[in-house]
Amino acid sequence: MGTVTVAATICGMIALYMCLGHDLQALSWFVFLGVLAILAAIFYTIGFAYGYKGFGDIAVFIFFGLAAVIGSQLLVLGASGQPVDIFPDSIYLACAIGIHSVMILHISAMRDIDEDRTTGKKTVAARLGHRLSALYLAVMFVVSSMLSIGACLTSHKLWECSILAVALIPLLASTYRAFIHCNDGNKVAKERKYSLIGIAIHNVAWIIILVIDFWFYY
Q1: Mind listing the pLDDT tens digit for each residue in 26-49?
Q2: Per the confidence metrics, is the pTM higher than 0.90?
Q3: CA atoms within 13 A on the CB side of 111
């Protein structure tokens, strides 16, 4: 794990320098963000262990959603020499991706509700219980879907939203199954894989939309 972390850090630093080496102020902010991400990963389960105190959702939303999507956009703009800016559709999509990441974390926590309560881990799912955790998962799906489609409506063609609508069906099905089987940890556990697949399909749909826009509308 340590070797992977060091290798990823080195590769990330090289990529940052290649993209933003000419802008030391922007580069310093990304380095600061990278350090925060590493510290967040380390202290998720050790030390303060905030992941077991109900704060894991916030960290996952920030680093796997906002930082990943908006940070990537800023890097691309910086590498292409364009003015660095944050667009509304990027914010919507970053929030949607962040919520999707939280959904995966939450499904795992739903599976372990009874065990976590026994061992004293206070995850969001353990605090909410089975039924409210299922409701929380459903709300996250609805909100993330609205944000994703909203991002598409903001800067893409209306018909392209149909691609997203179809792509969200597998994630909808997985969320529904986790919702109705929320009291059965074994059945909920199976949905983690299918939710990951559903989220991957959603992300591929966005790649398709961006490719279509690049080739036909720009």
Answers
A1: 777 777 887 888 888 788 777 677
A2: no
A3: 15
Helix (H, G, I), strand (E, B) or coil at 23: coil
Give the alpha-carbon dihedral of 151, 64, 124, 100, to 10 degrees.
Answer: 40
What does the angle CA 114 – CA 120 – CA 121 come to, to the nearest 5 degrees? 80
**What is the residue type of 9?**
T
pLDDT (mean) for 105-126: 89
Where do the structural domains in the chain lie, given as residue ranges?
43-216
Give mean pLDDT, residues 164-183: 95
Pairwise CA distance, residues 148 & 153, whole Å: 9
Please count the helices (runs of H) and the strands (runs of E) in the chain: 11, 0
Burial class (CB in 10 A: 0-12, 13-18, 19+), 50: middle
> Strand, coil or helix: what is 82?
coil
